[in-house]
Amino acid sequence: MLNIALFGPPGAGKGTQSEFLIKKYNLFYISTGDILRRELAEETKLGLQAKHIIAQGGLVSDEIIVQIIEKTIKNNPDANGFLFDGFPRTFVQAYILEGLMIKLNTKLDLLISIEVPEEESVNRLLLRGETSGRLDDNEEVIRNRLREYDEKTKPVLDFFKERGNYMAVNGVQKIKKVTSEIRKAVNKVLARKQLNIVLFGSPGSGRGSLGRAIAEKYKLEFVSTGDMIDEEILRGTTLGIKAKELYENGELVPDEMVIQLIERKIENSKKAKGFIFKGYPRTLVQSYILDGILKKHDTIINKIIEIKVDTLEVIRRLDNRSKTEACMPYDTSTEKIVKRLQEHQEKTLPVVDKYREFHDVAVVDGTDEFDKVMDLVSTEIESSFKALD
Description:
By secondary structure, the protein is α/β, with parallel strands linked by helices. The chain has two domains: 2-27 and 79-192, 3-Layer(aba) Sandwich (Rossmann fold); 195-388, Rossmann fold (3-Layer(aba) Sandwich), CATH 3.40.50. Helices cover 59% and strands 13% of the residues. The chain has a five-stranded parallel beta sheet with strand order 2-3-1-4-5, sandwiched between helices. 31% of the residues are buried.
């Protein structure tokens, strides 16, 4: 997902550049004025609240505006990203937007400020006034608008400068040159983006085989916490020795140890095109941990794939596997298989539901033969790569 805020004083040419960004990167345009008017026209709950405030001569609060923005984002899950125009206007709204992005498990990738000197803006708007007939295109009103823009906008720009996602463009240049500089900046952001996938599915659904095949095909880093722990045990590391003791006592490896392994994997794979996580997160707590780890490394989860296999088919597969060298500890009896499947249903499916609130979870039928399931998963992944382009 690509999220951009476009800034510029009146007369800077934001309209032209907005059209370019929307078309080029398939972004959904969010103008606070437009979406507020839509809520008013449709007389939604938020629209009626705003209407009451406006009728009393008041300004619509940030609380209402942010709810409308959140609603708009959630109602457009297939968008490649969002272009914000007119928000955030103030320092407070900058914090509001950052908090909203965190809640929605995404972020504002870039704030583009089209910078034009005051006299240039005045001349452009006066020229526009000669043909538009707009009453507000007179010099006194124009200078007041520009003064208000400068006073409110500078703290917002400073906010994003500190976060390192601010980019200034000289708006006095020819339109094509401005567009070219914006395109280069956005493409740099896209080049840094990774495709991070979480692969869900019950034991016996084929996640491990699929995950490794996907990683190899798309040059992603395969992250299996079980494999990483086994490697630590094999190497006899301090962490491996502790993990072995826990296994022998029938205990689970705590999240503190798993976090170290995932952190190290990401740190050592900075040039990776992305990661595919299998077996983690298994619980809601672990899902929050993973979100936090990825945010620390300036990336996010952007694809969820759930492999669905009928329960009876899963039990048949696990029973067959118990008779081979690939037998897992929980394959050795029907009782253990059922217990593991019940644990998946009670602990892991709520994690899928959590991600479903903010992601388009791709559900793939894993019943068919491996190659056909792989083709279905590949289609989902390739559509996600296109969204990053």
